[in-house]
Amino acid sequence: MKLWKDHIITIKQKVKKILGILYRLHNLPCDILRLLYQSLLQPYFTYCNIVWSIDYNTALNDLYLCQKRAIRLITHSRPNTHTKPLFNKTRVLTLYDINNIQVASFMYRITHHQMPHNLSEMFAPNSTVHDHYTRQSSNLHIFPHRLNIRRFTVNIYGPKLWNSLSSYIKEAPNIIAFKKRYKNALYAHSPTVN
Question: Which residue range forms the structural domain that includes residue 114?
Fold first, then answer.
């Protein structure tokens, strides 16, 4: 986990430099600033997010605060403006939503047999773990984990997230439709915090 904390600190330092650039350009129209956000900042939030962003929220909080500062800059909002409506208005996903999309997309590929066999073996439906039928038989099994550190791995967090999705999202015909449905659900429910 220390390795990822160092990585997150490095990303935060790079993001802060770009925030300085956005601050100097704050007079530009919102749509131009949003394009700059997408091209300069978003890659830092998305690249390999599935690996480093399943972590303790305390490690990610500083980076999330930087993202909130960026969203206020690109919408010409005051420094204390509530960011939840701003993320919705600009259709920008939060750091946590980006992670959920990436983990859920990974799980979609697992459940639709689009991943290598050795990765697919890490996951199993409840029906293969026990014989009796329950309402959760078709859900993915969440293997027991004693250590908190295991909770932040994709083979524990992935099935939890997958099981929480609606059938409409899970039964998307392809990965593109899946991502679109899931993003729309995230925008609709907007699980971000101030």
Answer: 99-189
